[in-house]
Amino acid sequence: MDETxxxxxxRDILDEDFSELDKANMIELLEExxxxxxxxxxxxxxxxxxxxxLPNPATTTTTATIPAQSFKNIVVLGMGGSAIGGDLLSxxxxxxxxxxxxxxxxxxxxxxxxxxxxxxxxxxxxNTEETISALKRCLEAKARIIALTSGGELAVxxxxxxxxxxxxxxxxxxxxxxxxxxxxxxxxxxxxxLIKEKGKEIEETxxxxxxxxxxxGAKSPFKNNFAKEVALSLYQHLPLVCGSxxxxxxVAMRWKTxxxxxxxxxxxxxxxxxxxxxxxxxxEINNKINRQIKIIYLQDKEGLLRxxxxxEITRKIIEDKVAEFIICPTRGKGKMARMFSLIFLGDLxxxxxxxxxxxxxxxxxxxxxxxxxxxxx
Length: 377
Description:
Number of helices: 13
Shape: globular
Helix content: 40-55%
Oligomer: single chain
CATH topology of the largest domain: Rossmann fold
Strand order of the largest sheet: 2-1-3-4-5
Order of helices and strands: HHHEHEEHEHEHHHEHEEHEHH
Strand content: 5-15%
Number of strands: 9
Distance between the termini: 49 Å
CATH architecture of the largest domain: 3-Layer(aba) Sandwich
Structural class: alpha/beta
């Protein structure tokens, strides 16, 4: 089959009904992101925070916020889709938080975690063994803990140890529940007076995502749908997603993991300017592997000029060694909108790539098999 006919047939597939393949109807979850975002914010507003964690009105002014409990650091415990919210928060709040925020993926915790640490223990299922292990060590260190989960052992530990619990809806693949893994924590940080109120940015983000849901949704035809176009471009190639320091580093990682889990396809990621100090050299030699690579550059329209200069020079150096260099720009003005506009594009593109690969995007059989084997040990 020639390339033109193959692409025409693939475009037809992306404009057909996916329901037979997408048995869990993931497309609906993805398209409903704006609504889920509102619900997630509500959960962050409504959960009960102990009074000793809340800001002291007597010491809070209009120009500064002073929490009753003085934290030295913020830690997010999580794995996979349950951890990405912490990565995004770390980058989104980097120029605002006066204390460090760290994401811990694993069984153990650093020595600095103590009674002056604010810990968000995030496990969508509530049974992630690495997160439960790290949480127990946080309890031993007397850290202040807020849990975010749909249930499981984490919810039981919250009740037994009397720390706050943000209960999120069950029955969603964690990677499709990103709104519930980001916005409740953001709202909690607001309520603790650790960050400024984000109402304007939230409203802009919601409005932009509503528009993108129509633009990138399943009913939007290929000719008008950039998410479908990106998916077709990546089909049967090796994607390399490139972000940039700061706002789009975790977004690039999100694209990589979504293509892995939704599309059941290899994908890699890197970040400017770091990749200009090593990975760029990998394209000096013309070879079959490089000719299979499609580079997706996540472009922040409000990003550093120097990063854009690096990106353009890098493109000129390597574009004839790889299959294609695809630029995906952010939408919106605020940091939150810019970040989530590209997350949404990546989520939908990875979904459509799954359809082209003729796989159901929801199941992750390899992960379930690994858990079963670990349970025998």
